Every structure is written in C-alpha cells, then in structure tokens.
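testing teh design pipeline on a random one, pls ignore if ur not involved
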C-alpha cells in the first residue's frame, strides 16, 4: 500500500495521511508493505520494484470532492488522455513501464480520493477526511481479495479504544 502526495498541500496529502492512519490503527504482517512515498516522480518505478501487488492511494482532481474511485492498470490506459490528478503522468508511466519490466507487480490498483482543496496546509478538508473510513475498508478489501494476511489492530489503537471516555462535569 503506497501513499502518494504531499503532506504540505492540503488534500494532495491524502495518500500519506491514509498511510499514517493505517499504520496507527493496524499492525501489518511483514508480507504487506505500507509506505508513504511522497511525491516520487521518476522514482515511482523503483518504489514498485520487487512488489507483487500494489495499491496506490492518491488525490484525484476529477469528480465530486470526497468521492472514491478505483482504477486498475487497464483503466490507466483507457484514460490516457485525461489528467486525473497531480501525480498522474508519473503514475501512468511507472505502471506502464512496470508491466514491461522483470520483477514488476502482477497487479496495480489506484484508489483515488477527489480533492476539495489543494493549497498550502497540512490538514485534509472535512469532506476528504470523511472519506477515510470508506477508503480504509476499500483498501483492506483489496488485501482480502488478494488473500493476503489480514492486519491486526495495533496495540496503540487498542489502548486508545479502551481508554476512559471524557465525561462532562456536572454544572
């Protein structure tokens, strides 16, 4: 699971924010790599090297803010004339080249979230933040579809879930 984007550009950072969310909530088995790869440009091809299956999470600019879109490698070719997001060209090229390379992934999937705002700032917009639970379920569904070992809730997240809830003081 590779998150693409810049944490300093609002909704463009949906990929890295999503990776942080997953790593905080879950303990993944060693066979599943979950990584924030930032804005790798030409280095994207190297990020996929020696991976069998890849799920990218990235920002999209086409559609209603907060909507999720799933694309397989074949969809990249079908939409080659349409610019979908800020990292689109590098992502398309890397996916196309990895299909030709030895040791490239056998399947690549992009889960994109349509942005509301891409501007300086480290926070996601409320509409993109609200899409995170659905995105989480979708990406974990890809792991199940590929019959990969399921992640377990992390110790930190379990501890947080068990912590006492704050109760308002009586007036």
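output:
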């Amino acid at each position: 699971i590779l998150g693409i984007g810049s944490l300093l550009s609002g909704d463009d950072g949906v990929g890295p924010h999503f990776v942080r969310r997953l790593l905080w909530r879950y303990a993944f088995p060693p066979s599943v790599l979950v990584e924030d790869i930032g804005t790798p440009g030409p280095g994207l091809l190297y990020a996929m090297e020696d991976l069998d299956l890849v799920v990218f999470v990235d920002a999209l600019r086409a559609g209603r803010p907060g909507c999720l879109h799933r694309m397989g490698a074949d969809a990249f070719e079908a939409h080659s004339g349409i610019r979908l997001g800020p990292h689109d060209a590098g992502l398309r090229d890397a996916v196309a080249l990895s299909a030709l390379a030895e040791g490239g992934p056998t399947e690549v999937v992009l889960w994109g979230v349509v942005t509301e705002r891409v501007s300086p700032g480290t926070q996601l917009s409320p509409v993109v933040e609200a899409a995170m639970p659905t995105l989480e379920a979708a990406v974990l569904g890809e792991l199940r579809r590929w019959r990969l070992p399921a992640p377990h809730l992390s110790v930190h997240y379990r501890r947080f879930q068990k912590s006492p809830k704050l109760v308002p003081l009586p007036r």
